[in-house]
Amino acid sequence: MEQMLHQTPSHSSSIPDGFVLPADHLRPATAAGVVSLPVVDMSHGRDEVRRAILDAGKEHGFFQVANHGVPEQLLRDMEAVCHEFFQLPAADKAEFYSEDRSKPNRLFSGSSYETLGERYWRDCLRLAYPLPAGDTKDWPHKQPQRLRKVVGNYTALARGLAMEILRLLCEGMGLRPDYFVGDISGSRVAVDINHYPPCPDPSRTLGLPPHCDRDLITILLPGAVPGLEVTYKGDWIKVQPVPNSFVVNFGLQLEVVTNGMLRSVEHRAATNSAAARMSVATFIVPADDCVIGPAEEFVGEGRPPCYRTLRFADFKRMHNVVNLGSSLNQITNIKSNQE
Ligand code: OGA
Ligand code: NI
């Protein structure tokens, strides 16, 4: 529990050594500054939405969605209840703290992946919403009292949105529309409630290292404070959140299934010294036993499979280490042309 950042004195003017990353891993975002990712308005006609998602997905691998059907009030409640949780006294949060990565529900600090010892400026409450029942008995329940209800409602709707986007992608790419229904999306929804406290020295550390999400697709509630940075044409660009919208990005399993037609794009979280930032990442996660490889629709004459077919559990084992910032090596490792 002493690892938690909320205990770092806010008046300190420097960061502990463990957080200081080598300068070559901290290339700043471009001077071009803040970029709005393409915004897809889900209330438009189905053909238009399908095309917009596929275009934005191919160009950036990241896009925002507006008019997505999740009520604004639920977004506000979600932000409020997550904020309330992180504001609780340390003693009230201690029972959820664990450094055991195999625990589906836990409070921890730093990267989700193993690191080489370096630390990251993030606290996280990770909750698993098992499907289909959504048994949430191990979630915090005493305080905030409405956390279970709000996060449960939110997760169900965010998952619905993710499944709708996957269906639209299937339609647009010529896969059967229910390709992602079942084990491949069916084990659980993982929810990471990220809290990035103000950081006295944002230029020397990161909230999250550069990484690609390893799930199928991620729905991010980015919060009003900027911090998400995405690679684009060899640079890091800052994402300006659009109010009441989600940021959507493809996970590595979608890259594998589409044989690289859709890419999982590297992203990271920067910190700032002025304000705490909160974000909520909802991951659609395959079952451990699910075997995932390029779909036959994307393989054929002149299009060899570029990725190995692996059980998701084996994929995770291979992809568990963040090597001081770049997960590109791990992606290269899963490509099938290595041996
Ligand atoms: C993540 C993530 C970005 C953010 O949780 O995987 O990339 O802006 N979060 O918090
Ligand atoms: Ni991520």
Description:
- With 339 residues, the chain is an alpha+beta fold.
- The protein is 24% helix and 21% strand.
- It contains seven helices and 15 strands.
- Strands 2-3-11-8-13-6-5-4 form an eight-stranded mixed beta sheet. Strands 1-10-9-12-7 form a five-stranded mixed beta sheet, with no helix packed on it.
- Strand 2 (39-41), helix 1 (46-59) and strand 3 (62-66) form a beta-alpha-beta unit.
- Helix 1 packs across helix 4 (147-173).
- The longest helix is centred in the middle third of the chain and has 27 residues, at 147-173.
- The model is unreliable at 323-330 (pLDDT under 50).
- The structure holds N-oxalylglycine and nickel (II) ion.
- Residues 211, 213, 267, 281 line the site of nickel (II) ion.
- Keywords: Iron, Metal-binding, Oxidoreductase.
- It holds the Pfam family 2OG-FeII_Oxy.
- InterPro entries: DIOX_N, IPNS-like_FE2OG_OXY, IPNS-like_sf, Oxoglu/Fe-dep_dioxygenase_dom, Plant_2OG-oxidoreductases.
Summarize the model shown:
GO terms for molecular function: metal ion binding; oxidoreductase activity. The protein has seven helices and 15 strands.
Ligands, deduplicated: N-oxalylglycine, nickel (II) ion
Query: Measured on Cα atoms, how large is the radius of gyration?
Result: 19 Å
Q: Which whole number gives the mean pLDDT? A: 88
Shape: globular
Report strand %: 15-25%
State the order of secondary-structure elements, H for helix, E for strand.
Answer: EEHEHHEEHEEEEEEHEEEEHH
Low-confidence parts: 323-330
What is the helix content?
A: 10-25%
Structural class computed from helices and strand pairing: alpha+beta
Could you give the count of β-strands?
Answer: 15
Number of helices: 7
Neighbour order of strands in the largest sheet = 2-3-11-8-13-6-5-4
Q: Roughly how many Å apart are the termini?
A: 43 Å
Instruction: Tell me the major beta sheet.
Output: 8 strands, mixed
Keywords: Iron, Metal-binding, Oxidoreductase
InterPro entries: DIOX_N, IPNS-like_FE2OG_OXY, IPNS-like_sf, Oxoglu/Fe-dep_dioxygenase_dom, Plant_2OG-oxidoreductases
GO molecular function: metal ion binding; oxidoreductase activity
Pfam families: 2OG-FeII_Oxy (PF03171), DIOX_N (PF14226)
